[in-house]
Amino acid sequence: MDGNQAPLYRVNELTPDPNVPFDPKVTGSYVKYAHWLAARGLVNSSVGGMVVRVPHPDYPDGVCYAKPQGVSLEEVEAEDLVITDIPYGRILAGEKATTVGHQMNREMLRLRPDINAVIHLHHDETIAFLASGYEEIRSFSLTYGFLMQKPAFYLPASINVEEDVAPIKTFIQDTNCVIMRRHGFTVLGRTLSEAYHRTCVLVSEVKRNIIVETLTSRNGKTAEYITDEELSHMWKAGDSVMYPDVVKRKG
């Protein structure tokens, strides 16, 4: 190996870095949002996960806070968390191993420097709705498009990007929400708050789909979807409607 080549590390290799201490504010925020997701009934056992990127001068991609394997978002506490680097998954703080899905989350953060939080859930209604023969989740509300800001990307059930992250680079730039058939979904956000709100609006839209399809099957009427043209406008206008302060900072 020459001096310019990056060293190779193993996922979950313990490489403690005293310059990467736990930030109580970040751990507190992580636990708060994890428990909020659980309070909404969106957490199943210890599956699913959430990661938060924090900038660090020694790590160009930042460092990543995550829960370890075997610990549910419902029960996670600050002392359970680990910090990893993003390219390799080395454990820089903490000692517990991360889940297999952590490599998917890390790869999404690596490929999307504008994103700082990823939430992945095995959501019952999303899995059931798509397993019932529906091809996509349609929008009925005036909030979904403004919050999500990009169209969802649908992965076939045959592709599991938790185990093989290679396909992620082909679609992740064009979406903030990956729908994984028979698996659940993964939502991205510039902040943990944004990822949480996008998660909430997604599960609400899934619920609306189920209700509308149930009601129209009984009354014989045609569902009133938000059109693709309307959604396209909403993607573009999202910040000006939902986050005017972001638009001011950009200006």
From TrEMBL:
<feature type="domain" description="Class II aldolase/adducin N-terminal">
    <location>
        <begin position="28"/>
        <end position="210"/>
    </location>
</feature>
<dbReference type="InterPro" id="IPR036409">
    <property type="entry name" value="Aldolase_II/adducin_N_sf"/>
</dbReference>
<dbReference type="InterPro" id="IPR001303">
    <property type="entry name" value="Aldolase_II/adducin_N"/>
</dbReference>
<dbReference type="InterPro" id="IPR050197">
    <property type="entry name" value="Aldolase_class_II_sugar_metab"/>
</dbReference>
<keyword id="KW-0456">Lyase</keyword>
<protein>
    <submittedName>
        <fullName>Class II aldolase/adducin family protein</fullName>
    </submittedName>
</protein>
<dbReference type="Pfam" id="PF00596">
    <property type="entry name" value="Aldolase_II"/>
</dbReference>
<keyword id="KW-0479">Metal-binding</keyword>
